[in-house]
Amino acid sequence: MRVHGMKRFSLLLTVLVTAGLAWADSPPATAPAAIEVFAKLREGPGNLTVTPDGRVIVSLHQFFETSLRVALVESDGKLTPFPNAEWNTPGLDGRYSFDSVLGIQCDQRGVVWMLDNGLRGKSTPKLVGWDLGENRLVKVIPLPPPVTRPDSFVNDLAVDRAHDRIYIADPAGERSALIVVDIETGDARRVLEGHPSVVPENVDMVIDGRPLEMLQDGKAVRPRVGVNPIALDAADQWLYFGPMSGTSLYRARTSDLGDASLPAMALAQRVERYAQRPVSDGISVDGDGNIYISAVADHAIGVIGPDQQYRVLVRDEQYLSWPDAFSLGPNGWMYVVANQLHKTAPLNGGTKEARAPYYVLRFRALAPGVVGR
Predict the structure, then answer these.
(1) CA distances to 148, 205, 349 from 219, in Å
(2) N or C: which end of the chain has fewer CB within 10 A?
(3) Position 233 pLDDT exceeds 60
(4) Residue 56's pLDDT is what?
(5) Sheet (strand 291-295) strand order
């Protein structure tokens, strides 16, 4: 993040953030058997997606002030600009270059969709689709006002190719909302703004007995973060989501979210509270309906089964230092980023304590699912 953007980011800390975990200087060479190190990174990752042929692509989080925005990850940790160096070189207008990408997902057609929040250079947020097979730009979809708000931090996305829509999580404080985008037309609608399913709950984010606090206008504040975790089921029938600062997981039918004629009140009434869960930064759903939860405050990855009950799947204080985003890969692997985001300067009172290596980890999913999610 650039210095001139620090004030704006500090104002957004009531919109985006959680937890603080311990970090050891000399981690062991291998992780426990339940979780495997796929790659060690020198740059701080944001989110990730896995392609049908097993390639791993990450966004590089703007809180780490990285030079790259999106990169292909090699198993030795080397990062190659994706889709090329030009897109990773910020342009004057930002339309055909990346400013600040977080959300990323490869769809079933081999198109990688990247969500650029535009906050480094104060450019208009946008979606960018890149065809892997043809190595070409598919589409740029701008997200100008009123689809986005002055305090928007469009953060994560879920791609629904059954209905040619993309659902975006926008944790904009009390005006948090989902954004529904028509891939073909580029039309976008802001829905559920201010609904209990998307606004932050009054929940402190506590790590190792210490509540997270940020500096805002020179004062320590405990952030409250709106909707961030978001994922589709394998059948593209349900969208699961909820505020990062919260203990509830919600869902809505994609048929309802895609119905522009449905009144706002009717849509709000059709949202379901699905399950109890911990504070979380990312979720993913496999083909059996298991919902994987990044339990950032617990050094853990949990799962909500079809019985709607939460349980811990794996806990690791060494490697799961802020588990962030998930992606299902081929052959039954689930990939997850661990990025120490709580130790970046914007989230740590202006002091950077995060240190490489950062991790792309993987473990065996309970069931296969849609690769890329």
Answers:
(1) 28, 17, 10
(2) N
(3) yes
(4) 98
(5) 280-285, 291-295, 300-304, 310-315
How far apart CA 156 and CA 113 sit, in angstroms, is 11
Burial annotation 71-108 (CB, 10 A radius, 16+ → b, else e): bebeeebebebbbeeebbeeeeebeebbbbbbbbbbbe
Evaluate if residue 20 carries a pLDDT over 60: no
Give the lowest-confidence range in 74-78, 142-146, 167-171. Answer: 74-78
Domain 3-364: give its CATH code.
2.120.10.30
Is the pLDDT assigned to residue 30 strictly greater than 60? Answer: no
pLDDT at 43: 96
